[in-house]
Structure formats: structure tokens, C-alpha cells
Amino acid sequence: MKAAFLDRDGTIIRDYPDALWASVSYPEFLPGAIDALKLLRRKGYHIIVVTNQYLIGEGLLSFEQYSAFSRRFEQALRLQGLAVPDIFYCPHARGAGCACCKPAPGLIHQALQMYPQIALSASIVVGDSTGDEGLAAAFSLDFYGIGFTPSRGRPVASLWEAAQLAP
Ligand SMILES: [Mg+2]
Ligand SMILES: [Zn+2]
Q: Can you tell me which residues bind Zn(2+) (predicted)?
């Protein structure tokens, strides 16, 4: 089984400055993101969202706020006919030394515990930050960098472009 490990904020949905997130109630899907998820599914990828949510650990977003938002994210995907993806998130503050804050490899380790059958050699990472790039590098995964030129990987304009390029 091949997996597409996707960042959430700035990759699938719109991102905001840290201080604004507590007032964001509904996800705004980026242009082409829903079609990209469908295309990745058609190409045989198991979709796994890997997201840093350090605002929880840093007290800017409550766990309840995160959970409510995440449920709306999942519901929006369901309404589009998409299976709800597995979501692995890091709730810890930056600098807390946890094992799961990207670029630390913990979120993919968690995914591999749930799905040991994932073939890393055929899997990809898509994200809009160097943390995502570092996560991909930790497992030598193919990386697509949205809106920036990664030192190792392909620059793309959107998740949609990455989904089209993905083998
Ligand atoms: Mg991001
Ligand atoms: Zn963590």
C-alpha cells in the first residue's frame, strides 16, 4: 500500500497567522484540493494527514477547538464523497522536544504502527514548509513543496499539481 502523507494547513486548506486560528470555525479548502485528494485516491494512494498543531500546546487553541474544527474538516470531505482520511497530529508546543513535531519523524512512525503495510518506497509527502520537507527526508520519501523550492524534491504550486505529478 502506498501512502500520500499530506500536510493540512497551507496544503489542503487555507492557513492563517497563529493568532487568528482560534477564531476560524470552518475549513476553507484551497483551489483544486478536493480534486487532488480524489486524484490521489484514484492513483491508489492511502491518504494520511500529518499536521503540526502546536497552537494547542502553546495555549492558543484549545483541544476542544481543534477537535471541533477537525470534525468540520472531516465532514466537508465526506460531503465531497471522500473517505475521511487518517489524521495524525502533534499537539505539543514547539521546542518541547516531542518526537512528533515535524520535521521530527513521529507522525509517520504513528502511521506505520497503524499501517505496517505502507510501502515507503512508493509513498510521497506534500507540504508547504521545510518541516514537511524534513519529515520526507527522514524517510527518504518523494517530496512536493507547495510554494517553495525544496532542496530535495519538486516545487509545485498546489496540492493539485502535486497530485498530477505523483506517479
Ligand atoms: Mg502547512
Ligand atoms: Zn509532538
A: 90, 92, 98, 100
Q: How far from 1 is each of 15, 38, 114, CA to CA, in Å?
A: 30, 17, 12
Q: Domain ranges for the chain, please list them.
A: 2-165
Burial 106-136 (b: 16+ CB within 10 A, else e): bbbebbeeeeeebeeeebbbbbbbebbbbbb
The fold of the 2-165 domain, in CATH, is: Rossmann fold (3.40.50)
Is 35 assigned to a binding site? no
> What single letter denotes the amino acid at residue 10?
G
Ligand 1 centroid – CA 134 distance (Å)? 13
pLDDT along the chain (167 residues), means of 10: 98 97 96 98 98 98 96 97 96 96 98 98 98 98 97 97 98
Q: Which residues surround ligand 2, an ion (CB under 5 A)?
A: 90, 92, 98, 100-101
- 92 labelled ligand-binding: yes
Q: Where does residue 142 rank: exposed (0-12), middle (13-18), buried (19+ CB within 10 A)?
A: buried
Which secondary-structure segment (H or E) carries 102?
none
Give the active site residues.
Answer: 7, 9
Q: Would the annotation count 101 as a binding residue?
A: no
C-alpha gyration radius of the chain: 15
- Closest by CA to 83, choosing from 55, 56, 129, 48, is 48
